[in-house]
Design goal:
heterodimer; A: mainly alpha; two-stranded antiparallel sheet; 73% helix; B: alpha/beta; Rossmann fold; 5-stranded parallel β-sheet; 15 helices; 14 strands; disordered N terminus
């Protein structure tokens, strides 16, 4: 009992990270039908920047918002410089190369300036685990799935109840028509990438007290979160969060009941099988293109 | 007819010339051994393991500076050439070829990772290039399956000797005599599994659990739950800082506090990141810069401190690796003096005659002509360190010495 509860708890925490990072892919895809493959590095940036600012003497509650704001600026710059110029044609894929390359550069730059080693980010919520029924978890870790669900509902409210959110939905539905209605799709894309980067940075900050902030912390998370977004059906926020959390739990169950070495092999195999069964993703809808 | 005649003559000439050229190449390693007075390393200088390459370079630089200030070796100043392999075996192979062929350095110094050292074994043999390991402790780096190692030497620990050292201490610490083994899924960890299993068998105990983890894993609850349920009260650990931090966190989560006796992949960094969770974790090593130092070691530390803008000895992230690297350069210098020339073959043969008192060990002789004794630091020089209040100290200076 304690064993399975432990896997569920740590799986929920891991899934919370996947969900938050995958939500960023959802936001970017909605706005531009493209994505920023530096998103894992933006997640890392949030953690690393917060650690650096705290080491410089800033309180955490000031350092974290500054890091999130800086990540948002980076997200906007990536959209403007690395995605928009390479996403003008309907089936353009140049943005993939530019953002992947930028991700490698960001990680290298962080390694050179910050150093290769992880550094701790202290949090009172990560000092003592909460233990019950033979299992344990840090309160800090439980924040991740909770925040992921909160962000998901917040995004839904934002998309439905604010003018900017509705404009973003309009762009997602039909970029050309939205433009004819007076919405500036480029501005919407810029804001979407900034928002996605801010959420990614938030995820990095939330997990840093448990795993250390290090330049290499983002690459695999970014890849898996993208996989989660695709499997969920990238245009569905609730689906992204549900699949993200479930994937985290599944990974932990594989580790627990099969083997640690099988985690990625079985996990990615499951992703492929699900995509074979649901080519549009579990929660995705087939897009109808009128000609 | 004429054409056939000339064609056959041409063929014969080409065959003769080709054979002569091939013959000249085949004898090249034995004849053309003259080398440059450079010590070249393929180290992890960027990427997640960059601290390890820099730790090696600190020791190398300190020794080379000291030697050069005293006039160099055989009237020539030594040079240090550092190549980055980022911990990737393929880059280490490229660097080995560059060092042996293009730079023609008298010796190559190895880096942190055992897989990199394993990858260059054949290349070094082909080139007739002496190599000195200062960290990578994999048994097969020196003791080849074929027994054909002529050019690779090491001033470091060896896993086949480390395994009994750690298992002995784990048994001494264990109340139930139930020992578990937790190791990283790399060439280093897999190689250690063989050594640890063989040691346990020789000691008449069975490992109650053998668990592996991947590089960059952030949660090890599953493995630790299995070890806990198997009753392991002492764990032999084979991994590095980042994953050790994740393991200590996972132990804290599930409330599992076994004794941990670790190979030397973990160091000062773990104390910084995991803090109080490291309390009582025991690590094997060859040297500690914290605590009382000999007058000579004190001078070395002052040199390293000044060159690298350090404040405390505890800032040396791989204390044993830096000390091994320092000693290795002096062993090389002594061998060069015996060889009497910057000649790779003569240097190799001279290694067996070196007798030298270093800061880590008394090398007397440094090496012998057996596969096993291409390792200079004998198990009698292995030390135990322990974390106390987040600092890695010689175990005698912690409350954990008495338990042994």
């Amino acid at each position: 009992m304690g064993e399975i509860l432990q896997y569920l708890l740590t799986g929920l925490s891991l899934g919370g990270i996947y969900a938050l990072v995958a939500l960023g892919f959802f936001i970017m895809w909605e706005a531009t039908k493209a994505a920023n493959f530096t998103h894992g590095e933006v997640y890392m940036f949030g953690a690393v920047a917060t650690v650096v600012l705290v080491e410089r003497g800033l309180p955490f509650l000031i350092a974290a918002p500054i890091a999130i704001a800086a990540a948002a600026v980076i997200g906007a710059l990536i959209e403007r410089l690395l995605v928009r110029p390479f996403n003008k044609e309907p089936n353009a894929i140049g943005w993939m190369l530019t953002t992947i390359a930028a991700g490698i550069m960001i990680e290298s730059f962080a390694t050179i300036t910050y150093g290769p080693l992880g550094r701790p980010l202290h949090s009172p919520l990560a000092e003592h685990p909460i233990r019950f029924a033979g299992a344990g978890i840090y309160a800090q870790e439980m924040l991740l799935p909770i925040v992921a669900v909160m962000v998901m509902f917040g995004l839904e409210a934002f998309y439905r109840r604010t003018t900017l959110g509705r404009a973003m939905r309009a762009v997602a539905f039909n970029r050309t028509t939205a433009g004819l209605m007076g919405i500036n799709p480029n501005r919407i894309a810029l804001i979407a990438y900034a928002l996605a980067a801010a959420i990614g940075a938030l995820a990095g900050i939330l997990i840093a007290p448990v795993v250390q902030a290090a330049p290499a912390m983002g690459a695999l998370i970014g890849l898996k979160a993208f996989g989660v977004a695709i499997v969920a059906g990238i245009a569905n926020a609730r689906g992204v969060v549900i699949v993200g959390i479930c994937y985290g739990v599944i990974e932990k169950l594989i580790e627990g009941y099969i083997s640690t070495g099988a985690r990625n092999a079985v996990g990615f195999t499951l992703m492929i099988l699900v995509l074979l069964l649901f080519p549009q993703g579990i929660f995705g809808r087939r897009e109808v293109v009128k000609v | 007819m004429t054409w056939n005649f000339w064609r056959s003559k041409s063929c014969a000439f080409a065959l003769f010339a080709g054979s002569a050229f091939a013959l000249s190449l085949s004898i090249a390693p034995a004849e053309a051994q003259k080398a440059e007075p450079c010590i070249a390393g393929s180290w992890e200088l960027t990427g997640p393991l960059a601290h390890t390459g820099l730790a090696i370079k600190m020791g190398i630089d300190a020794a080379v500076d000291e030697i050069n200030e005293a006039g160099g070796v055989l009237g020539q100043k030594l040079r240090v050439i550092a190549y980055d392999d980022q911990g990737e075996p393929s880059r280490a192979v490229d660097n080995a070829r560059r060092i042996g062929d293009r730079d023609n350095c008298i010796i190559m110094i190895g880096g942190y990772r055992t897989p990199n050292a394993l990858a260059i074994r054949t290349v070094l043999s082909e080139m007739g290039q002496p190599w000195m390991g200062v960290i990578s402790a994999g048994t097969r780096v020196i003791e080849w399956e074929t027994g054909a190692n002529e050019w690779m030497f090491r001033v470091s620990m060896k896993d086949r000797w480390v395994a009994p050292f750690l298992v002995d201490h784990a048994i001494q610490r264990s109340k139930t005599k139930k020992i578990g083994f937790l190791y990283e899924a790399t060439g280093w960890g897999q190689g250690a599994l063989v050594d640890v299993e063989a040691t346990a068998k020789a000691k008449g105990i069975a490992l109650v659990g053998k668990e592996t983890f991947n590089i960059a894993d952030q949660d090890m609850s599953a493995q630790l739950i299995r070890l806990r349920d198997a009753g392991a009260d002492s764990l032999v650990f084979w991994g590095v800082d980042r994953e050790a931090d994740a393991i200590l966190r996972s132990m804290d989560r599930i409330g599992y506090k076994p004794n941990i006796i670790s190979a030397w992949g973990i160091g000062v960094q773990l104390g910084k990141t995991a803090g109080q969770l490291t309390e009582g974790v025991v690590v094997a090593g060859t040297y500690a810069w914290t605590g009382d130092l000999s007058p000579r070691a004190q001078k070395v530390w002052q040199r390293i401190k000044a060159s690298n803008k350090l404040q405390q000895p505890s800032e040396l992230v791989l204390p044993s690796g830096t000390a091994n690297a320092y000693d290795a350069v002096f062993v090389i210098a002594e061998a060069l003096k015996i060889a009497g020339a910057y000649d790779k073959k003569k240097l190799r043969d001279a290694f067996y005659q070196v007798k030298y008192q270093g800061i880590v060990a008394n090398y007397s002789p440094a090496f012998e002509k057996t596969a096993e004794r291409h390792d200079a630091i004998l198990p009698s020089y292995y030390k135990l360190l322990a974390y106390h209040k987040g600092i890695l100290l010689p175990i005698e200076q912690t409350p954990y010495a008495a338990k042994f």
